[in-house]
Amino acid sequence: xxxxxxxxxxxxxxxxxxxxxxxxxxxxxxxxxxxxxxxxxxxxxxxxxxxxxxxxxxxxxxxxxxxxxxxxxxxxxxxxxxxxxxxxxxxxxxxxxxxxxxxxxxxxxxxxxxxxxxxxxxxxxxxxxxxxxxxxxxxxxxxxxxxxxxxxxxxxxxxxxxxxxxxxxxxxxxxxxxxxxxxxxxxxxxxxxxxxxxxxxxxxxxxxxxxxxxxxxxxxxxxxxxxxxxxxxxxxxxxxxxxxxxxxxxxxxxxxxxxxxxxxxxxxxxxxxxxxxxxxxxxxxxxxxxxxxxxxxxxxxxxxxxxxxxxxxxxxxxxxxxxxxxxxxxxxxxxxxxxxxxxxxxxxxxxxxxxxxxxxxxxxxxxxxxxxxxxxxxxxxxxxxxxxxxxxxxxxxxxxxxxxxxxxxxxxxxxxxxxxx
Length: 421
Fold this sequence. Notes:
The structure is a single chain. The chain has four helices and 28 strands. By secondary structure, the protein is an alpha+beta fold. The strands form six sheets. Strands 11, 14, 17, 19, 20, 22, 25 and 26 form an eight-stranded mixed beta sheet that branches. Strands 2, 4, 5, 6, 9, 10 and 13 form a seven-stranded mixed beta sheet that branches. A hairpin with a 2-residue loop joins β25 and β26. The radius of gyration is 59 Å and the shape is rod-shaped.
């Protein structure tokens, strides 16, 4: 019995080991983790993992459920699409690779193990597509409409997810919606403009976006057609002869109008006499005519004319002559009565004696008069000096008397009798 005891214990241990090995070898495969949902942009590469424990001798297969198509079995690619392949990391993960993903690759993918019964799990491949504007279903890039008419702009786009359409004006101006309100951005694939006006003319941008870059846009130019209109800032302009003058007109028209000037029923052309300048901005134009060196034949009526395929209109400006401004008169100095005496004294300096010789300055004359006033209160007659000839003395006396009278006349101080010094 002693010999059988150890042998029996050994046999039991071997049986236990074999049982454990069999259990390991016969344990059914199972998935260690689910297949994640994968999102990829159109044209990129994607991979779907399938992690299987205790695979043993069983095989892993990949199937595209939406297409009902077997893609791979174990390490072999069954489909004829070269964009699909499979790889194994010698552990538990089996990877299905899709290169240059297309929209038809979107859908559910099954990882299947050929046990009995079969086990499987499913993952989803999402393929997102940037927006794309469908030109054939959208309004063409340039449209024309008569003013006060209605027009609808259409913009269609595809992509995944479905893109959102927004409208805005290229110049940043608001969009009139139903003539009741104005918005900076309008959402929707159709933009309706009611009773459109010339101020709504311009480029409209249709922008498609779905959070998948890049966003795309289309530019649609809306032309609003109307006949020409003219307004004149100054219909009556005056200028002197010999000067230059500029007259101007403002016009609006679409299609673009032909604009010109007419004087005396003759079209005005650019010459040395006339300078013509036209500044254009969208449907507006500013016409300027400069007439140089005005002469009598340049005055009269000038007409600015604008015409396009829808009509014609004109404005009139009358150019008339005004006198050349004269030089401004000198300022008159107001003098008080106290200054009249000094003015009369100043005039003394311009007096001359009877013989044509200039008189003395006012200050000298005044001093001499004051001296005479003190010494000779009244005129005194003195006889001739015995040592001088009477004729010579009398001549000198009369000369001095005449000089004194002339001076006193100018200063309004005429004495009663002439006197001699």
